[in-house]
């Protein structure tokens, strides 16, 4: 318990550094871009339009309010992949600074995931546009959306911490993870209904795919306008904190060796 308290105190002490790193990441992402932060809204909209044309017209997917269904899954999954991919390079990409001054190493991974969260909040502007255009009515249930985002953020942070420390010792992790996220995307019902899959595959996705739970909870609050299945909420939350504990443990256990490999 004492160590946990000390970690939170250190996190609070370096809050200004985290803020500056997040701002730097956001500025670098849109540096020399004419439209700048507008791309945070335009990009998910354009991708959604392309996916809508492909899957709704060519494959005739029958889903109520398919554009809203699609933009929710796409936006949440994009955040997870962006956050974790950025986290992979959070230690190796700051090797010069880590060799010169002492700062808690997890600060760099935390700032990468947090900057992706800020970008997600910008991207949700695209969601609002789609909701308005497709007639989604806003309800009190949407006030619970931050709960889903917290689950997703905690999960992404835990996975990001694990990947960040692994990438220090095994640089090929970035290429392996790229392949895995492609498979992960197709195994998450982002652009197809879960019911199209065989029942044994549905059971496997519910058990082993955290993104299924976060995307489904979000869609339930927005499109069905009711409380998500509490078993799914409990399971998704448990997976998020389990990944956070695993990622934090692996990171803290190996961080003293980083200086030998970066």
What order do the helices and strands come in, and which of them pair?
Blueprint: H1 2-13, H2 15-29, H3 39-58, H4 66-88, H5 95-100, H6 106-133, H7 145-169, H8 173-186, H9 199-208, H10 210-224, H11 230-254
Which descriptors would you attach to this protein?
262 residues, mainly alpha, globular
- End-to-end CA span: 31 Å
In total, the number of strands is 0
Q: Report low-confidence residues grouped into runs of 5 or more.
A: none
What is the percentage of strand-forming residues?
Answer: under 5%
Figure out the total of helices.
Answer: 11
Describe this structure in words.
74% of the residues lie in helices and 0% in strands. The chain has 262 residues and is mainly α. Helix 4 (66-88) runs antiparallel to helix 10, helix 6 crosses helix 7 (145-169) and helix 7 (145-169) packs parallel to helix 11 (230-254).
């Amino acid at each position: 318990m004492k160590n946990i308290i000390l970690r939170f105190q250190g996190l609070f002490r370096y809050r200004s550094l985290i803020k500056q790193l997040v701002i730097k990441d956001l500025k670098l992402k849109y540096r020399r871009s004419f439209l700048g932060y507008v791309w945070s809204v335009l990009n998910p909209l354009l991708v959604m339009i392309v996916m809508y044309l492909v899957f709704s017209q060519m494959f005739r997917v029958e889903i109520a309010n398919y554009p809203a269904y699609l933009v929710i899954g796409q936006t949440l999954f994009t955040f997870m992949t962006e956050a974790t991919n950025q986290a992979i390079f959070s230690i190796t990409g700051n090797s010069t600074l880590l060799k010169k001054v002492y700062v808690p190493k997890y600060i760099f991974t935390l700032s990468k995931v947090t900057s992706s969260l800020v970008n997600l909040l910008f991207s949700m502007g695209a969601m609002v546009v789609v909701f308005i255009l497709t007639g989604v009515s806003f309800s009190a249930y949407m006030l619970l959306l931050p709960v889903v985002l917290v689950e997703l953020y905690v999960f992404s942070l835990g996975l990001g911490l694990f990947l960040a420390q692994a990438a220090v010792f095994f640089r090929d992790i970035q290429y392996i993870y790229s392949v895995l996220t492609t498979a992960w995307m197709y195994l998450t019902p982002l652009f197809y209904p879960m019911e199209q899959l065989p029942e044994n595959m549905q059971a496997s996705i519910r058990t082993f795919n955290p993104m299924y739970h976060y995307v489904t909870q979000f869609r339930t609050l927005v499109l069905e306008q009711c409380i998500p299945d509490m078993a799914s909420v409990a399971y998704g939350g448990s997976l998020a904190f389990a990944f956070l504990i695993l990622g934090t443990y692996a990171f803290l256990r190996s961080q003293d060796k980083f200086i030998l490999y970066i």
